[in-house]
Amino acid sequence: xPLTEGNEHIYRRNYSPLCPYCDFKIGLAxxxxxxxxxxxxxxxxxxxxxxxxxxxxxxxxxxxxDGLSNKKKLEENKNDKNQG
Length: 84
Ligand SMILES: [Zn+2]
Fold this sequence. Notes:
about 80 residues; 2 strands; about 10% strand; binds zinc ion
């Protein structure tokens, strides 16, 4: 349902952007829109209805940690394999 009919929440924080006019789901790779991965506001022409809208890219970071003792074990395993 297009934004003009009032369902703003479905246009927020999606993995693929939805056109706010025609609800077209825009595959960034399919449409060669890799610049949209850059965190910023972008002006986009919908590939389906050709109307222009603003797309905001948000990037989130995730971090993984592991104790040093586990890292040592990994290095020991690598060394064992190299020697064998
Ligand atoms: Zn559209």
